[in-house]
Design a protein that fits this description.
The chain is an alpha+beta fold and 137 residues long. 15% of the residues lie in helices and 45% in strands. A hairpin with a 2-residue loop joins strand 4 and strand 5 (67-69).
Length: 137
């Protein structure tokens, strides 16, 4: 009996540390509209990156594990917490001119749609759509 309890406790800890089966999958390339995916991102092998001049067609970001990339910033997630349909993120970001800590939340709308929520900005949110294959192509 003691071995069963120990195995269950270890299984619970592993599932908790790994994020659990119901953890939100926010990995991928996200654009401000589904139609903009091919204009904002390009695939380089299995990785997505920003097209030159992508800012003319829309906004976006790429989440790959603990890394978040924007057109002008490269961030590393230092803390991530899920509360229901919200994913709260604190990231350390670097641009060409400075380092900063950024806090924001993603509201999961469905598997391929999230809304970025800005802390302290009331009802302000921006919707993003996951691009198929990273680029929509």
């Amino acid at each position: 009996m003691r071995q069963i309890i120990r195995a269950c406790a270890i299984g619970y800890c592993v599932a908790t540390l790994a994020g659990g089966a119901d953890a939100a999958d926010v990995n991928g390339a996200w654009a401000s509209s589904p139609q903009a995916c091919g204009e904002v991102f390009v695939s380089e092998g299995s990785k997505a990156s920003f097209r030159l001049g992508s800012g003319l067609y829309g906004n976006g970001f790429i989440i790959d594990g603990r890394r978040i990339r924007g057109r002008t910033a490269d961030c590393t997630i230092s803390r991530k917490k899920e509360t229901g349909a919200l994913v709260h993120i604190i990231a350390n970001c670097a641009t060409d001119i400075m380092f900063s800590s950024v806090e924001f939340s993603l509201k999961i709308i469905d598997d391929n749609t999230v809304a970025r929520i800005y802390p302290g900005m009331g009802d302000m949110e921006t919707t993003y759509y996951r691009c198929a294959g990273g680029t929509g192509q």
